[in-house]
Amino acid sequence: MSLVGALVGQLLFGYLADLCAASQGVGSINIVAWIVAMRFAMGIGIGGEYPLSAAICTEWAPTQARPRMMSAVFLMQPLGQLVAQLVGLAVLAGYNRTNPLTKCMGILVGTEEKAPDPRWCQSQVDSIWRWIIGVGAIPAVVAIYFRFQIKDPGLYDLDVRDRGQIAVENTQNLYRENLRELQQNATASGTRLHRVDSLPVQLTLPDMRDYFWNQGNWRLLAGTSACWFLLDVAFYGLGIGSPQILANVWASSRPTAGMNVNDHSSWNPGLSNPSIYEALLENAKRNILTVCLPSLLGSLLVIWLIDYIPRKQFLIYSFLALAMLMFITGGTFRAVAYTEKFPATIVLVALCNFLFNFGANTLTFIIPAELFPTSYRATAHGIAAASGKLGSVLVQVILPFMKFDGNPRNEKVSKPGSTSLGYVFLVFGGVMALGALFAWVWIPSMQNPRAEGESLVLQNKTLEELAEGVERYRSDGQVIGMRDNFKAAYKGLHRRLSHGQREPLGEEDVERK
């Protein structure tokens, strides 16, 4: 593709140079446009990593280790965020030794305190930004190397490409097992080394239509997509990783009369730090303490506990816990913001970040990779992940136009001294409650029930069992679907009220379609 791009560029700009002069062609390469284009390209790459990493990890992982391995993959997100902040701090500290950023002072209305040369200050911060972006290429290069070392999962070679021998060889190379022993064990245990005829050889639209629509498995895709969509609406809508939002959360008082809050610098969102260096340093510290560390702890804890909690219930309760915590955080922020009691809000916001990763944020990544057949796994996971990003885009577009009647000034959430963030937390608490509803009606159980006297560790269902879809879940007594779940809940509630005793919600009473 790069050669094709070079060919197009040579022909196009050669013609335009004769038409408009070569110097104009060079000058038309706007740096901002290039940055936007590269950010877009980077977004494509990051988006592609979601389904690819999920599918590869899911299909290579042993059945019982699968959720922990996928949780470990997702752990890299908060770990990367923490490392990025630490790299920023290191570059900032190192650069300040030779180019003192303490000369770059914030501007206060009614005073003469300003940077000696604003253009010099801008160039210094620009250099820091370039160093940080450049360092970010290092883990990408490392990831590229390891990606070239990864073979296609044996399950993919077996189910999709119908290459049983290659599937066995790749599995042998990974697990270092003897090929003959692997084949003998597979035969003895009844494991298939050839593709089941009912499975499609490759992804096709007719097969997808049959699986998702005719067999009713669209409910699973709708459930995973809706949960991810609603999660990202709140996660990105709150913007609790942005310097402006964190500055409001950490503020002990409103901006003073001498500060022009309508023209505050993006590098100094709190309007209280006297230099660029101190402002950037404070921004990084706030992010590490409020966002990075709580998120990392949540991801570590979910790796430890994920085998002990049914994942469907885990997702439902994490949504409900986030809803309750956001209601509390919103009310608390309204009550104590810009007062000496502001640390209460900091603690609650940190807990929100902890619960995001100890629950819904991790589970919405894991569940879509488990539920679907190998032929559709990456596609379905990509659709669910894209639904989440759609939610993040929509909320960024809509939120600036939202009006909060309780706030007479209808200020932007990020504006210094604004109390609108409290209302945003309250709104997104309702969004999280809606996520719990969709998880309840459309997400199935992915583990076998724990028998009395057995270990506390829940046994995971195999990918082959999960791939059978809604029909298999219903044959196991599970209820999938909005109408059926409400019908089962109504019957269970009616039975309790009629007999005056506590009983389960009667999944076995649901009429099968």
TrEMBL record:
Query: Where is this chain primarily localised?
Result: membrane
Which Pfam families would you find in this protein's record? Answer: MFS_1, Sugar_tr
UniProt keyword annotations, A-Z: Membrane, Signal, Transmembrane, Transmembrane helix
- Domain of life of the organism in this record? Eukaryota
User: What terms describe the molecular function in GO for this protein?
Assistant: transmembrane transporter activity
Q: Which InterPro entries match?
A: MFS, MFS_dom, MFS_sugar_transport-like, MFS_trans_sf
Question: Where does the record say this protein resides?
Answer: Membrane
Q: Which first-to-last residue range defines the signal peptide?
A: 1-22
Keyword Repeat in the entry? The reply is no
GO annotation, cellular component aspect: membrane
Topology of this chain in the membrane? Multi-pass membrane protein
The record lists the membrane-crossing segments as 73-95, 128-146, 288-307, 314-336, 342-367, 379-401, 421-443
Question: Per the record's keyword annotation, is Cell wall biogenesis/degradation included, yes or no?
Answer: no
Q: Domain Major facilitator superfamily (MFS) profile, which positions? A: 1-447
Q: Which residues form a coiled coil?
A: none
Name of the featured protein:
Major facilitator superfamily (MFS) profile domain-containing protein
Q: What is the lineage of its organism?
A: Eukaryota, Fungi, Dikarya, Ascomycota, Pezizomycotina
